[in-house]
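Notes from the 1:1 (GR / supervisor)

We went over the backlog. Supervisor wanted to see one worked example end to end before approving the batch request, so GR pasted a single chain during the call. The sequence is below; no edits were made to it. Supervisor asked that the structure be written out right there so they could see what the output format looks like.
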Amino acid sequence: MLRSVGQRRPVTDSGDDPRVSALRTAVARLRRELAAHPAEFPDRGIAEEELAALHAMALDGAPEAARLRRSLLLIAAAIGSVSALAVAVASVRDAVELFGEPGRGA
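Structure output shown during the call:
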């Protein structure tokens, strides 16, 4: 990611990047809702693994947009049409989009 001289990541008063905070919140919500969802589906393990990867990237504090998007795609494909999780998946998508498009330097 290219930045102009002196340009910095946005930070909150606590020193956290608000995009990372939004990602952590969204991932935690989807992990909770997935854990509480009673139905089993074939790719549930894949969704859980990718949520763990997103969680780890958010803890690191500097996730790469391309890697975030890959995880999001795998999560969406794994969860499929489980409508009970749609709002939580959309929250993760919105948080990932805060990091911009890969290759655009956002």
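Supervisor's comment: The chain is about 60% helix and 0% strand.
Batch request approved.
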